[in-house]
Amino acid sequence: MDTLPLDVNHPAVRDFLALTRLQVLTPLSLVINLATVLVCSIVVKPSLGGVSGHRPTAISPSTPVIGIYILALYVMQVGYCVLLVLATKPETKKTLIKGVGLSLVFSNFLMAIWAITWVMEWFLVATILQGVMLILLLYSNIALLVYHPPDPSRPFDTALIHAPLRFFFILPFSLLFPLCLFITLGFVHNPAVSPGSDPDFSGWHVWPTFGVVLGTNIVGLIVVLLRRDIVWTVAATWICISIWSLRPKPVPIYATVIIFTALHPLALIAAELYHRFHKRQPIALPDDEEHPGLYRHQGEQERTRRESERAPRERAPGEVSSGDIWS
């Protein structure tokens, strides 16, 4: 058979083929990502956490805490893969194909390659991989928010598409890309600690690192306030906890992540309260009897009654008063 009995240029056929491609490649990329990270974390020496421990920076995270974050990300992606197979609504399929597409597949492959370069201590390559992954995930999140925004009528789309993509994006945005960049630039130092003295953080380039930590957290705080984004709140708070859980840390960095650990949840609560009690105040209708609505009939009756009281009484035809007779 020379040609397929289908028109592959037809939009419906192309969407079907794109969805089928995603149903195959997305689980495959997730399995490769998960297997590579597990091998590099458990089998290889030095492991992912060991390399980070050998080159401490001002934002180096606690390995167990950030490991739980990555594990939660894998669980969310499993839900995304299930939705890929079970999706029936045209809007959901369009979101998967047009909104996410192959960006998540490429990001999983890049994450697996990054784990290899990290344990091999090829930090420049690792930084480039994290930068490319950050761009891919940023593109997907913008496409989802602009062209396929969350819809309350489709809660599974929000939970299994928007949430995993945003959770994945925040990891390189707030932690992995800055961490690789700082190690590549040499912002690394083993603080010399002597008995009875404070650690020396002079080699850690505290203030450039402080600017990056403050900037990323301010961006997250703005997103939380404007969008009441619970996913960003959880992810940003989690990353802040992972940073201050590993000590010692320079005071500006430690204080900043401690403050934003409290600010992100408080901002979400404040934004939600403002939305509920200020934006949704009931609109009071003006007390106008001419206002069209439920009270139009009552207003017309009241107006008719007042006009009848002011108007002089009219006599019936042929009625003669006693005064007219003698005038």
From TrEMBL:
Residues 291-317 have a biased composition (Basic and acidic residues). It comes from the Eukaryota. The chain crosses the membrane at residues 24-44, 64-87, 99-116, 122-147, 167-187, 207-225, 230-247, 253-274. Keywords: Membrane, Transmembrane, Transmembrane helix. Residues 285-327 are annotated as: Disordered. InterPro entries: DUF1774_fun. PANTHER family: DUF1774-DOMAIN-CONTAINING PROTEIN, EXPRESSED PROTEIN. This is Uncharacterized protein.
